[in-house]
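Please complete every field before forwarding. Incomplete forms are returned to the sender.

SECTION A: IDENTIFIERS
Entry label: holo-498
Bound molecule: guanosine-5'-diphosphate
Molecule representation: SMILES string

SECTION B: INPUTS
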Amino acid sequence: MHTSSSSPSLLANSDADDEQLRSYFDDTTKGCDVFRILPIGKVGSGKSTLVSEVFDFELDESSVQHYTCSDHDINREILSQNNKSLSLHDSKGLESGSAENLKTITDFIQDRKGRPFSEQLHAIWYCVEIPIAGQRPFEGGDIAFFNSLIESNNKVPVIVVFTKIDRLQFREQKRLKKIYIDRGMEAKPALAQAKTDCATEAAAAYQKSCVDVLQSDLIPAAWMKHCAVSNKHPDSIVQLIEVTKSTLVKSDALNILWASAQMADVDLKIEMSIKAGKNMYWQGLGAAMIPLKGLCRVTLLTVLSRIHSDIVRVWNINDPDKILVGANMRVMIRMLFVEPIMSPTLDGNPDPDSEASHIIKNLAQVAINPAGAVTSAVSELLKSIDNMAATTPATARVLMAYISDLTLGMESLYWLARARKDKAINRQEVVHAFTTYRASTQRRDVHMQIRDYIGDENIMRSFSRDKALTKVAAIVDQARFNPTEVFEPPQVQHGFAV
Ligand SMILES: Nc1nc2c(ncn2[C@@H]2O[C@H](COP(=O)(O)OP(=O)(O)O)[C@@H](O)[C@H]2O)c(=O)[nH]1
Ligand SMILES: [Mg+2]
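SECTION C: PREDICTED COMPLEX
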């Protein structure tokens, strides 16, 4: 960013100064907005299903048209409105096994190596349907492909994804049932027993027919990890996400992009959401005291807004109207969560009704009506946050509360959006999700614990910033949502002002 030549005073508090402060994620990902993945595998092996399960990624009508037109090009990135943190490339399948197609794919992988970070390929999912009738999982084309990866010294992590494990379980269930009946069991208990036992049998069969083969000398060791998935088993999807993540250990940037792109592992969202606060938290505690990078000072408000955009980015909720990153949203968060924790007169457990009704009344003005003027109460609040002495317990509390409240509020919104097909959210749902969290006992516990942790000036003296973030993670962990009991579907209000 260009630095203004007019030397900023340390005491000045201009927007220009604040603009110097980049968010931790922006700083780390350096302009790369997407995780770029290449699924490979035969037609019908389950690639599209997997992409939908992991990323909520449905091809747009427009991309589908491109996709089916004859000038198919592996270089064309496929994007989705539903998930703007993912870029997909279509390998057109290896089914032809033709040398030409293999070369197209390996050339693509090779070419991406030399590109800027944002255009590089970050992972390859090599999808193989688990055989259920004694076929071989790998054929000549697969082996040729793995060999070419080795020859080209490929460094992009290759994860072998064995798909449709449920079909193998079903096969084993049928086989066991027959055995049990042959042994004289009645049909019904035989079925029940077979259902119980089939997972273990299928695991053994999978090990033998897939994993052992993969790990044998038959298959060139061009892959890094493997796992088995099924769209019938959400746990297996989360496991694929974890396995993919485990191949990205060396890069903070890729970990951020991955946590953001994947939409099925909520624990990973939470973990990264808190991490988003970690770096900026330092800046926040030093705000108004420490000239940033020797240039200027930043305000706590700026720090909060950077934490805000990082956390929203991790959750990657489909937000076509950009509600979550609007100024009104940040004001709403401050009102709902920061104000109560700032006030020295409130104890950790304010009367939820009076306080909530006051807040929700104001909320109607600031959050729901974007054009509405910020109320004087809000601007007073903003001023007091800004004037807060930097290393007071209040600052530490505000930062901790902002990170934990926004994280849990986003979790609440995540579950709300999850039930919906397009998973796009509107203003009403945002308010619903956040006020639900605001009114919850979890929220009260969170605030109480933060107050307990940072009680007074004495504690502040020996206060460790890193410990505070570990504490935030622990507090958030205890306050996690149980999605099944969180929400009644919101009342549909027609004519809602958006
Ligand atoms: N039983 C079962 N069927 C699956 C699974 N994943 C995909 N399928 C089905 O397999 C077929 C091909 O899947 P698709 O994702 O289109 O494969 P692609 O051609 O590789 O993209 C579809 O009918 C899917 O419904 C799975 O985990 N279990
Ligand atoms: Mg497909």
